[in-house]
Amino acid sequence: MTELKPMKILVPVKRVVDYNVKVRVKADKLGVDIANVKMSMNPFDEIAVEEAVRLKEAGKAAEVIVVSCGVPQCQETLRTAMAIGADRGILVETDVDLQPLGVAKLLKALFKKEKPDLVIMGKQAIDDDANQTGQMLAALLDRPQATFASKILIEEGSAVVTREVDGGLETLKLILPAIITTDLRLNEPRYVTLPNIMKAKKKQLDIIKPADLAVDVTPRLSVVQVSDPPARKAGIKVPDVATLVSKLKTEAKVI
Ligand code: AMP
Asked: What is the pTM of this model?
């Protein structure tokens, strides 16, 4: 068997409201309140970092670079990714409320600079549920994409990706460099250990601005309204099955 040339992998990671937090809509109904709320790495991005690190551990990747775009606190997200095992991080720092197209343009510019063989990213960010950035990046770069990956195999010059589709699986072969987005079942990310958190503090983290990449990240769309899901009515307790059946018949009229 011929040895594969180890790849360079770029993994974009987004800092989002932790999935355990119950968010509250702000009074102006233009977003959710994220002041004093726990923030974490987007869970699908954690899966992407884990996959890239596993490819490195298997000798298929030489370097894993993580990138986050946003406020200075995204450095924490990058440090977590480096504690999982990424080699270095890049923060594209901006206070602008980034939208998928802006992020995709920043990632395109970084792709041109870093020349990775593979980009592995989340299928969607759990805060805005956009599910757009990976697809936009692939289109801007004119490179192959496989979304919702549940298995990734690397061959010479290509990636074989299994995707979860309605009622089954689809397997695609992509010519590298390519963009892959992760689904939940791709892997189970490891817990970061204290020694690895300490080691991650010493890893290289470069901070740049969108202007350094000559990218305009001005938002193209504005949020009109965010609203809570309709409140559920309180349930009732019934003493026995007979009462339940009777209420379903006479009150709820569903049987
Ligand atoms: P979205 O299109 O917003 O649902 O996000 C899909 C994926 O794009 C995420 O899982 C991340 O991998 C990446 N991404 C989105 N926004 C950012 C960001 N601000 N910084 C880094 N990566 C991002």
From this structure: 0.92
